[in-house]
User: Fold this.
Amino acid sequence: MSIPKNVTKAQATGNDFVLYVDEDGQYDPTAREVEDICDRHFGIGADGVIRVTHPQYVRDLSAEQVEALQQEGAEWFMDYRNADGSLAQMCGNGTRATTRFAMDQKLVTLKDGEEFALGTRSGVKRIASLGQVQGLGEHVFRVNMGAWKIGELDQYTVTVNHASGKAQGTFVDMGNPHVVAVIEDAYSSLPVLADLDLTQPPMVDPEIDEGQNVEFVRIDEIDSREDHGEASMRVFERGCGETLSCGTGLCATAIVLRAKTGVDHWNVTVKGGTLRIDVTDNTVLLTGDAQLVADVAMR
Assistant:
């Protein structure tokens, strides 16, 4: 078994993970082991597995990548695997869960104003602990998700599980690929957000070779004078299916909403809770809760 006997279950706005510390690179899991532990009936159940280890023990990183991470101060790396065992470049909610876990394990101590430099396959992410924040949770973290790229608006057509109707989607690169479709407006003929059937992967045309996460978004309220908006979102994650939340997907959503409305600051509600996303030309900040659920001793 390439996963230690003692692991921790955590969740960040409903995106749930199995985490463990691998101090010296002993516990590099196989895809099958990840699938088994993430199984919600025969395993612990999770959207993914996070091995918290040092960059030099991550087998798919080059020596140059390891050196770059270390030079940016990333002593620890979030080695994230999707529930189907595949490697993932990034997970925004996972960075918050990892930071909460790292603090609990005494891997890092964060004082006011300090940031945790966490290595990921899409570079170093810097996370600050904000404590309790009204409307967001008791253990709230702000993640600087770094640079982003957006494609031309509405260049993809999105359909859902053979349902009649379609919506137009926009590509966003958050270190992993997203297509964001704004629905319940004049340009979408898909069912309303609550009625979407996301039991099967949405179809995206033209296809993206590596696959993508797909976000479906409804604008609920805009206050242009305050530069603030409210929206609701559902997400289908590649390698997982529909999840209660997706951090990079929330960021991609706010980026597309900004492009369409000019509003920079968004509160977005997903099935797992509400998060705040702040977008600038150069970066995006993701702020939300993270909780430790249980310590688990596996048989």
